[in-house]
Amino acid sequence: MAYSHNPDIFRWKRLTKTKKPTADKQVQLNNGEINQWMKTVEMASDFAVTEVFSLKKPHSGISSQSMALQRTEQLLDHDEAYGEAQALLSDWMNSKLRLELEMEEEDDVIGSPEKNNPEAMPPAQPVSLDYSSFDDLYSHLAEEEESSAVNNFLQDLMEREVVDSGIVEDLALDSEERDRRKRRDPSLTMEARHRQVRENRARRDVERERLHRERVARRQAREEAQRREQEDERRRRQEARRQEEMVQQEMVLLRREMEERRNLEQLARQMERERVARKTAAKSSLVLQPGPSRSTAQKQQDTERPLRLQQAEIRVQMHNLKFLQRHFSGWYSVLLERRVWMGKAAALCDWRRQLRAWRAWRALVWAGREQREAERTEEELRTQNRRCQVAVESDRRRLLRRCLSDWRLWCRAERERRELLSQQEETRRKMAALINAAATGKLKMMEAHAPELITGLPEPSDQSETIELKGQPGSRPAGPTPSACQGDGQPGAVVLRSLPWQVTRRNAAMSAGELRRARQRGEVGIVGAALWGGRFQHRHASQQQTIAEQRRLLREQQEQIARLQEEQSMMGLRQEAQTAAQIAVPASPGPRGMTSDPKEPRAGRVSRGNDGRSSASRKPAVRQPCRHPTVMAMEERARQRAERRREVEALKRKEEEERLAQLKAAVEERQREEEEEKRRAAGRRREEKRQEREREEEKQWRLAREQQLQTHAQQHYHITLLLRRGLEPWKRLVAQSQANTQSVVSDDDFHF
Predict the structure, then answer these.
(1) pLDDT tens, 694-734?
(2) What is the mean pLDDT of the chain?
(3) What is the number of other CB atoms lying within 10 angstroms of the CB of residue 626?
(4) 3-class SS letters over 89-129
(5) Which of 208, 387, 510, 722 sits at 20 to 30 Å (Cα–Cα) from 741?
(6) Residues in CB range of 116: below 8 A, 6 or more apart
(7) Which of 51-55, 331-335, 363-367 has the lowest mean pLDDT?
(8) In whole angstroms, what is the distance from residue 323 CA to residue 362 CA?
(9) Distance between CA atoms of residues 607 and 626, nearest Å
(10) Are residues 505 and 645 in contact, defined by beta-carbon separation less than 8 angstroms?
(11) pLDDT class of 23 with cuts at 50, 70, 90
(12) CA–CA separation, 175 vs 60, rounded Å?
């Protein structure tokens, strides 16, 4: 710590040694030293706490502490912290002192056998208990307290960690000492004390804030009450001043009237005195003068008296006229003021009545306009809804027509496919019966019935072997079973396609069920794509995709047909070679005919008309006598089948072209409908814009018309107000005042 090398801390030893005899001075000096030492300890403890618990490195202790203790709240906090720290330090020192005393007692009990001796105990008691005065006892207690405090402080300094914790662990200090240091560490207690101080500070801040708010509220309420009271007082003063002014005016008027009345009375008395004086003077002159002079004086008085009376009456009349004029002018001013007030009130009432009527008319006009706009909007919405319903209905009908046309096309294609499958099954059945008859030897019995075999062949009854096509030339092939060779007229029967004549462009690729399923899938996909494209967006893209898919399928079918034709031509050439080899071998006509019968139909089945003609031209001497009616019938049927196949293919191509043309026409129709719909929508939008523009123009015209009418009404109102409330009443009032003045003057003249 900062005070560890301060020699003034232990100055109390020198002072106690030098001034031991005087107990009072010793106590005072010891108290001063203790206070100084406690202050230094407090400062050091504050510095230590700030160093331990602060996050930043503190500044200079004295300056920061002096700056921190400027506010009252900080002073209170510092006092509380100081009191708590002092209490904590006193508790800690008491515990240390108690521990040291216990340790010293144990050392004394164990180390000094003299203290164990009961004879040595009594001398020690007077040393600690025999005191002559209270000052000695107090000085002894003070010395013990100082010594214990110094020892505890030195003990704390000795127990402080000087080296690092890692070095302490390396040195393997005793665990008991570490535990004891941990128990003696007051950081937790100090932290709790600081937390309590912070809580107390927060509580005081809250209480101070509450008190501040209450003071502010009371001050505001007091200011509001004062302001209201001042307003009331000012209003009362103004009312009193106004009443006082009115009283002063009334008093002035009364004084003026009284003064005028007093002047009139004085003037009347003066005139009366003059008249009496003249009478007395006339009487005295008559008494003093002789008769002739009296008569002249009397005459003179008689002539002057009417004049004076007339002058006095004139003055009195003028005074009365002035008085009447003054009162009449006051009455006239009051009358004019009242008339002006009445005119203003009438004008205001008239204006309010007209304003009320105009507002009612405006509300009525606005209500009618809103009603018309609502009806127009309702009609537009109804028309739009009707158009939407018509559009939805037309779209639904268009979809129904398209679906109906697609369904008709599918039904026709399915019907043709079924007819073709039935024809193929019939052909297979007859060919199987013919080959079975040739294999079993029944062909010779049916030679007489050759024309009948052309139209139909009898079905074999009981045959269970199959024909081996790739055997030796002399071997006799067995006929196929009826279950394998013929379908018994059932479209779902399974047919073996191992014979060459069974391999055609139709059945070599797919069976009837496979073809039906493939077509159904293709038609469903096409119809679905068409529906999707027709009902929603991207119709053109879906149609192009459908056309590309159909073209791809056509190319695949053409490639497959060409491949099958090539295979059939190769097979025909091999059969011709085998037939030529069999004919070249010399043998009996019976077995040769029997062995060559199964081969000849096969060669006739596979080979084309051109191949037959070329072989006939190459070997006319060999093939001509060997032609059989069955072979000829088979060739004829093969040619017929080829022709029918070509016709069917041409018909299918034509149907495909028609279907593509229909699809193209449907696409064009949809495009035309979409364009027409777009044109109609554009027309509707133009019509709506035109109607909106017309409504806006009508609204502007109405506003301009209303403004014009309002301007005319305002001008008429001002003119009427000026004529009826301004000039004419003023003229009548002036004329009436002139008439009143004239009548008053005439009355005065009449009185005179």
Answers:
(1) 999 999 999 999 888 988 888 888 887 777 776 677 778 78
(2) 70
(3) 15
(4) HHHHHHHHHHHHHHHHHHHHHHHCHHHHCCCCHHHHHHHHH
(5) 722
(6) 109
(7) 51-55
(8) 57
(9) 17
(10) yes
(11) very low
(12) 38
Q: Is the pLDDT of residue 523 over 70?
A: no
User: Measured between alpha carbons, how far is 501 from 498 in angstroms, rounded to an integer?
Assistant: 9
Intra-chain end-to-end CA distance of the chain, in Å: 129
Residue recorded with tokens 């399915």: 414
Q: Which amino acid does the sequence have at 67?
A: M
Name residue, tokens 């009981």.
462
Mean pLDDT for 106-124 is 46
Q: Which two tokens stand for residue 544?
A: 């192009």
pLDDT at 214: 92
The amino acid that residue 692 corresponds to is E
d(CA 733, CA 752): 28
Identify the band that residue 361 occupies on the pLDDT scale cut at 50, 70 and 90.
Answer: very high
Could you tell me how far CA 314 lies from the centroid of its own chain? 99
CA distance 295 to 277: 19
Query: What count of other Cβ atoms lies within 10 Å of the Cβ of residue 237?
Result: 10
Angle at 658 between CA 653 and CA 663, to 5 degrees: 125
pLDDT in tens, 83-98: 777 777 777 777 766 6
C-alpha span between 36 and 703 (Å, rounded): 97
> Which residue type occupies 548?
A
Residues in the chain: 752
Q: Of the candidates 447, 557, 550, 552, which has an alpha carbon nearest to the alpha carbon of residue 510? A: 557
Domains of the chain, residue spans: 7-155
Distance CA(331)–CA(48), nearest Å, equals 100
Specify whether the CB–CB gap between 529 and 560 falls below 8 A. Answer: no
Structure tokens at 476: 């006799």
Tokens at residue 450, please? Answer: 């050759």
pLDDT at 433: 84
pLDDT at residue 694 in the model: 92
pTM, entire model: 0.22
Long-range contacts of 88-95 (CB under 8 A, 24+ apart): 88/186, 88/189, 88/190, 88/193, 89/41, 89/45, 92/186, 93/148, 93/149, 93/152
Q: Residue 135 in contact with residue 24, Cβ under 8 Å?
A: yes
Contact 100, 152 (CB under 8 A): yes
Residue with tokens 């026409």: 665
Per-position b or e across 484-494, b if 16+ CB within 10 A of its CB: bbbbeeeeeee
Distance CA 662, CA 514 (A): 27
Maximum Cα–Cα distance across the chain: 231
Per the CB < 8 A criterion, the answer to whether 655 and 410 are in contact is no
